[in-house]
Specification:
The protein is an alpha/beta fold and 216 residues long. It folds into two domains: 41 residues, no CATH class; 164 residues, Rossmann fold (3-Layer(aba) Sandwich). 48% of the residues lie in helices and 12% in strands. A five-stranded parallel beta sheet has the order 2-3-4-1-5, sandwiched between helices. The chain is globular.
Length: 216
């Protein structure tokens, strides 16, 4: 993947693949490369690296909040504990990725992205695979953790997995770090399928934003 990213600069007509302009300043292609490498290291899926929305499928108040976070993330750090609820294709994951990139671009916090299904799989393998352990550590040491796509399959998962996720949430909130959760479950689904402790952590710490149905 890194070699593929480096190839992005080779055909640049501004710097002819050198990465620098005549005045010795960095070319835009090199700046883009650095951003992409940062997104890659944060485990953000490639499909989100270039995405951008100017409006969101939610209420005006929530639109204003999201725009403020994206425009000036350094002034809105305290609002990064977010829960995005809504149906598939309503823009939850893309919005989470946009916030992650805004934080990375301004070098505000370390960020790590995990799809919930992947996280569960990695948690089960962490004690037998050192590479998995390293990935889990990177996620748990981040200042902003994106937990994407909590679905009904997880709601039906065994209690030990739910306990592990609850422990992660508690650790982040107690250490004044941040989580962005995206899910196609309703809040009532969480209440029905998770224990009181998990639901209490979510309700007390995450600003919930509901996205409307649509195709994004």
């Amino acid at each position: 993947m890194i070699s593929d990213l480096i190839n992005l600069t080779k055909n640049c007509k501004k710097c002819y693949g050198l990465g620098y302009l005549e005045d010795a300043s960095l070319c835009s292609c090199r700046l883009k490369l650095y951003r992409y490498i940062s997104y890659y290291e944060a485990n953000i899926p490639r499909i989100y690296w270039d995405c951008f929305y100017s409006s969101f499928m939610t209420s005006k108040a929530n639109n204003d909040l999201l725009k403020s976070i994206l425009t000036e993330p350094e002034k809105n750090i305290d609002f990064l504990n977010l829960g995005f609820f809504g149906p598939t294709l309503s823009g939850k994951s893309t919005t989470a990725a946009m916030i992650a990139k805004a934080v990375i671009d301004k070098d505000l916090l370390s960020v790590y992205w995990f799809n919930f299904t992947d996280l569960l799989y990695q948690l089960r393998r962490r004690f037998t695979d050192n590479t998995v352990e390293a990935q889990i550590d990177a996620a748990l040491k981040s200042k902003l953790l994106i937990l994407d796509d909590l679905g009904r399959d997880f709601a039906l998962d065994k209690a030990s997995a739910k306990t592990e996720i609850t422990r992660i949430f508690q650790s982040f909130f107690e250490s004044a770090r941040f989580i962005i959760l995206t899910t196609n479950l309703f809040i009532t689904d969480l209440e029905r399928n998770f224990d009181v402790k998990f639901n209490s952590l979510v309700s007390l710490n995450l600003t919930t934003i509901t996205f409307q149905s649509g195709t994004i």
